[in-house]
Design brief:
There is one protein chain. The chain is an alpha+beta fold and about 300 residues long. The chain is built from seven helices and seven strands; from the N terminus they run E-E-H-E-E-E-E-H-H-E-H-H-H-H. It folds into two domains: about 1-75, Phosphatidylinositol 3-kinase Catalytic Subunit, Chain A, domain 1 (Ubiquitin-like (UB roll), Roll); about 80-285, no CATH class. About 50% of the residues lie in helices and about 10% in strands. This is very-long-chain enoyl-CoA reductase.
């Protein structure tokens, strides 16, 4: 058993002698929760000299002995990343059928028959977000357990509003065939867009499976990914995600679809650049520098 001192970032002593009955940081967090019940493990951020202590780390790994001083930060009420994604993707899955089947609620004239473009887009968008929900539950392995629950409203705006309300309202309005941007309305153009969407969605799924297989369950292990798409791009999953939405844009010519796609790409580009930088920092020369961040040979 080890006794440690827990202090706040301001230096206030929270626990003079916290006894830890275990060998991991998670055991330490559970011991702290016993004294302060509202601070469950995911809500705690523990550091020693600015070095973050992760749940799976051992006490020996950080040389934690009797009287070691550990700094505590309250991260606030948390929600798991898995639940965050489930909530985010539920928005479009609820909103698109609402507009598609409930046209009388939103438009002056009811839709008697949806146009081919509307039917295809509704099918593609529903499959896309159902796929995302499946990946969230069955495929993704998260490097972080949770995030502050207050952030879920900001995160959900992107999906509930931009790809939900704003896109659904314009695409499913009576008689819609194309928007203000030129669309692929010919048979050849629509066929190309559909093939592009299917290819992109399947490719996105394959890259997510590769990433899953790199990280053993319950760990934060990071490895350099190789294989489908990864040999030329750091984040091919983001690249294929963008292509899938470009296919929707080409089918509809809708400004709302283009708006969502551009905003999504801008965010994914920032994530991809950060991931590439982190790979280089962690793996050095072992990481192939020729890999661009998100678009092959360009960005």
């Amino acid at each position: 058993m080890v006794f440690v001192k827990i202090q706040s970032r301001s230096g206030e002593i929270l626990a003079e002698k916290l006894d830890i009955d275990g060998a991991t940081v998670l055991d330490l967090k559970k011991a702290f929760q016993k004294q302060f019940p509202k601070y469950y493990p995911d809500r705690q951020r523990l550091t020693i000299d600015k070095t973050v202590l992760y749940d799976k780390d051992t006490l020996e790994q950080h040389n934690i002995k009797d009287n070691t001083t550990i700094t505590f930060k309250d991260l606030g009420p948390q929600i798991s990343w898995r639940n965050v994604f489930i909530v985010e993707y539920f928005g479009p899955l609820f909103i698109h059928p609402l507009f598609y089947f409930g046209s009388k609620l939103f438009y002056k004239e009811a839709i008697v028959e949806h146009t081919p473009v509307q039917k295809i887009c509704f099918l593609f968008i529903m499959i896309h977000f159902l796929k995302r929900e499946f990946e969230t539950v069955a495929i993704h392995r998260f490097s972080n357990n949770s995030m502050p629950i207050k952030n879920i409203f900001k995160n959900s705006f992107h999906y509930w509003v931009l790809s939900g309300i704003n896109m659904a309202y314009w695409i499913y309005r009576p008689g819609f065939t194309s928007g203000h941007v030129p669309a692929c309305t010919s048979t050849i153009g629509m066929t190309f867009s559909c093939i592009l969407w299917v290819y992109s969605e399947v490719s996105n799924l394959l890259t997510h499976i590769i990433l899953r297989n790199l990280r053993p369950a319950g760990t934060r292990v990071r490895k350099i990914p190789y294989g489908y798409g990864f040999n030329v791009v750091t984040c091919p999953n983001y690249f294929f995600e963008t292509l899938a939405w470009i296919a929707i844009c080409l089918l509809t010519g809708s400004l709302s679809a283009w708006l969502f796609t551009i905003v999504a790409f801008a965010q994914m580009y920032q994530w991809a650049v950060k991931k590439r930088r982190n790979y280089i920092k962690e793996f050095g020369d072992a990481f192939p520098k020729k890999r661009t961040a998100i678009i092959p040979f360009l960005l």
